[in-house]
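Subject: Sanity check before I submit

Could someone independently write out the structure tokens for this chain? I want to compare against mine line by line before I put it in a report. The sequence has 218 residues.
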Amino acid sequence: MQNYQIKHETITVNNIDYQIRSLKDRQQFFDHKQRAAVLGISSATWSLFGVVWPASQILAATVSMIDLEGKRVLEIGCGIALSSLVLHKMGVDVTASDYHPLAKEFLNENVLTNKLPPIKFQTGNWEAGNPLLGEYDLIIGSDVLYEPAHPECVSSFIHEHSNKDVDVIIVDPNRGNRANFTKKMLALGYTHHFERFNVEEPDEVNCKGRILHYQRYQ
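---
Independent answer below. Compare away.
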């Protein structure tokens, strides 16, 4: 039984249209059998996974322009997983990850809607072990630093699932935890650079912040 409302929208990334099923708005909530509550997801944060955030569109546009042939890619905190859908359509070896109990369901339906083959998905809990997740050449995420505890747990999670040579791209819409996250990543042996973005065009994504790049090569 579905006690939440959804919407369908077309999102264009790099001149390609994607049909996306998402929650109607951030007011939706339906925690069947308390599946989210058990994972520590409150009613206030339950809907966050199901919204296409502006930062996720910035990330999707960014990674769509990168040559990722032969690379294993992991999207963390994927939510609706727009970037994973884009990379999957491009033929990239990508795994989407999230710990919300409905993330996989929404992703699978969007894969079918866009007439794509099955996509890889793994549970990704930043505060727990994820033994099935493996290691990756590129780890990406958008708007994943919205809580004060995230710099510590997200940096540790990324480090745990990084190959010896790895690139990390995080799109951050000027959250206050960015500097602490970069400090944690530098302490783990990553180098860092960033580029600013400010998209405020009519009928486009309105978002500004930084695209954070981290690298570790051994």
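---
OP: Matches mine. For the report I'm noting this point. The longest strand covers residues 162-172.
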